[in-house]
Amino acid sequence: MLGMPLPLPTAPRAVIVLLAAAMAVGAFGLTGCGEREDWSPIDGPWDPDHPEARAILEPPAATDPIDDEMADAGERWYRTRGCLACHRVDGTDVVGPALNGITTRRSYEWYRAMVMSPDSMIRVDPIAQQLTEIYRVPMPDQGVDELRTRAIWEYLRRVDARPGPRGS
Ligand code: HEC
User: Which of 4-13, 40-49, 54-63, 90-99 has the weakest average pLDDT?
Assistant: First the structure.
């Protein structure tokens, strides 16, 4: 049994490093092995082929409860994807229209098209064209993917479900 153990302190560490590497690869969806029962892609990896992916991207019914985890992620993305630079949710227009009320004013499908491809909406959609006439700036494409677009909608649903005092 000579040479069996590597020096003990390093062996477990090597295993941990290997495990971490395997998890990182898995996290980027390269392996696709195993089932992730607690799949929570909001801040983790997004796998569009995951069996639950379609359900997450479904437009929610007005009566669906707010998914707070998704809304929190949506709020972060709303801030980091530049939306906040042009849109407020307190009823004031800045560069673009205030977005509170959007979840009753527009359908989810319309909103999604506007966020994911504002250029083509401004080209073909009469409402988008009308808005551009009013605001005089074409909304830029922020490169937001479908999951983030959906999560920002959840944030906006929460804004509309729990309206605070206007002007705050
Ligand atoms: C540079 C400013 C700018 C940024 C950044 C921006 N928008 Fe806009 N957005 C606008 C303007 C201006 C309009 C009005 C339509 C137009 O002029 O093209 C608009 C319109 C919209 C509308 C339609 C509003 C309505 O009343 O129907 C939605 C929804 C929207 N933006 C969401 C977003 C989201 C979500 C983000 C971030 C991912 C974002 N916007 C980033 C400027 C911006």
Answer: 4-13
User: 156 in ligand 1 pocket by Cβ < 6 Å?
Assistant: no
Residue 86 is encoded by which pair of tokens? 């042009």
Residue from 105, 110, 108 nearest 120 by CA? 110
31 domain residue, yes or no: no
Which CATH number belongs to the domain containing residue 132 in this structure? 1.10.760.10
Does the residue 153 lie in any domain? yes
Q: What is the 99 CA–ligand 1 centroid distance (Å)?
A: 8
Q: Whose CA is nearest to atom 43 of ligand 1?
A: 139
Report the separation in Å between the CA atom of 111 and the middle of ligand 1, taken as the mean of its atom positions: 10
Express each pLDDT in 101-127 by its tens digit. 999 999 999 999 999 999 999 999 999
Whole-angstrom distance, CA of residue 77 vs CA of residue 81: 5
Average pLDDT over residues 129-143: 97
* Residues of the domain holding 98: 65-161
b/e per residue 137-152 (b: at least 16 CB within 10 A):
eebeebebeebbbbbb
Q: Cβ(131) to ligand 1 under 6 A?
A: yes
Q: Determine if ligand 1 sits within 6 Å of the CB of residue 144.
A: yes
On average, the pLDDT of the chain sits at 82
